[in-house]
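JOB MANIFEST
job_type = single_chain_structure
chain_count = 1
residues = 271
[input]
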Amino acid sequence: MGSAPPYCNLFPPNHRGVRGDQLVKRMKNPLTRRQTLSLLRAAGTAILVIGCTSRKSSSAQAQYSSKAKLTSLACVVSPQQTEGPYFVDDKLNRSDIRTDPTDGTVKEGVPLQLTLKISQVSSNGCVPLENAIVDIWHCDALGVYSDVQDRSFNTVGKKFLRGYQTTDANGTVNFTTIYPGWYPGRTTHIHVKVRTQATSGQGYEFISQLYFDDSISNQVYTLAPYASKGQHTANNAQDGIFNDGGAQMLLKLTPAENGYGATLDIGVQMT
């Protein structure tokens, strides 16, 4: 039959903990050697499957599972882009950013459910980045940001369409917001910042922008309240910031109830 594999018991213990070969010896009418060999041949690999356990199997399975986890994510470093002038660290820990907590008003617009999956990219692959702080902020349907003073508006003290979430074990955060409006000189976008808190030394920071398909933006901007601003004056191809890696930051949009769902994998390289 050949030698048995390491750590392999061709006669596995029965429910009382007695090995099969011991049980054969205890039988009043034990099988002859020829009968025993015949039974082994008939059972074939079934006996090997039942009675053989490699001490390396659990380790190999763990390595396979870990490798599958690494390769299941998009292992591409996402491009960093300018933060812009409108980031305000209001420390608003919330998933639904449509409401202004200062007065309870809710910004009108096409609903958008945004899911971001943050991964750390290394030479070994990608792993979910847990416990990272992810801020997003963007303008309302009429192109206005909150809590800033600009040439055409002053919203200091307001806190609509801003907030952050902390990534879960899968590196995921979810936000409920509205489809952003636009303002002259820029295509439709959402700002995003990813931060980690280092136990010692300086933490890591990733800044970029999220973009939308022009054809969908054009449809949305025919609806109220967007339509009151007039025709969109810049698309992705005309936007200098978008042309610097923005195609990689295009959101994957799917129709959702009364609006859209959007997802994006973001890969960050922290070393």
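[summary]
Residues 63 and 69 are 10 Å apart (CA to CA).
Strands lie at 111-122, 125-128, 133-137, 162-166, 172-178, 189-195, 205-211, 252-256, 259-268.
exit_status = 0
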